[in-house]
Specification:
The chain is mainly α. It has 14 helices and no strands. The chain starts with 7 loop residues before the first helix and ends in an 8-residue tail after the last helix.
Length: about 350
Amino acid sequence: MILSTVSRDVGIVSEAILTLFDVVSLLFLCVVYYLVFIGNAISLRYWRRRKKLVGVLIANPLVAILAIVVPAHVFAGNRDILLALVSLVLGLIIYSTFYFRFFRPFIRSADFRIQNTVMMWWAMAALTVSALLFLYLGRDFIKMESRAEISYDLLIHSASILISALGIAFTYVMKSEQANRNSKQQLYQTLELQSTELFRFECSHRELVQQLWYEAPGDGKPGLEDATSRYCVRQYACQMLNLFEMATRFRASRILPEDVFGSWVIWIWELCNSRQFQDLWLDDDDLPSNYIKELRDVITAGIDLSLSGAGTPQEKRTRFFQEAAERLNCWEIEQWFNDRPEIALRRSYRTGPMAVTTA
């Protein structure tokens, strides 16, 4: 019969294959959790949903155990290899649904380390399914000797295979981490160099600095009497906005550290206080549509705070940092002036072309 049990020997071999699959799965799970908690592979915007994230991380191994491991081992222990094979396939389908429905949306779109690890695990799962299918189809021809002996050579060979597998996994994790750190460092250096170039541009174009930072708009429109001058001021502001957009993207990808990003938030706040920039941002040219939503929301909130009559300049600045922390999930920014006022003050002198308001 097609659902007949197999011999004891085939059952033992199938149990050994499933046990090996369990060990490898545990190894891959450890790699995934390392990338989540140490490698910053989870998207920043989801860290605020701590309850949901923690629930998914706890459910991840539970779904794998209940859907894949337990049923397959139960059937294999009863020597029902076909049922073990079917339950293993169904368990993999259930876990794949869980992965794409709940866990995959948390992973950063630009980070493929977890995806590659899961693909390697799926390849191991496919190999396990193939091995069980081979055992089932050849169940009448597979037998074990009555007196099986394990030699030292076999133990050494098995240990070397296990150590090699662990070494490959460790090397993969370390190389991915090193490549990730190098990429972050290169992007961060590029951003700092571009900001330095902007400062040089400002020193060479003092008239643009004067118009944007120190002149009040006339009749509600900056440079209304000179369209060319207004265009140049707008392009000068766009240079800063482009840098702000890159900094915001890097922070959202957890490339730019929170303490470094705080100095950029001060610069953004200073620009939001410029009357000329406020008119550029709010006029009919629709300048905000050129930038990502996170930056648009932060700058719009900053301009609203600057134009509001409630609160002192220091209170408005503090509320703006809280708003930026809320929208970008950057918690150190929220406590910027409470926990590290001396660093915030020093960086505001360094990064912004405007005069610094004292804390």
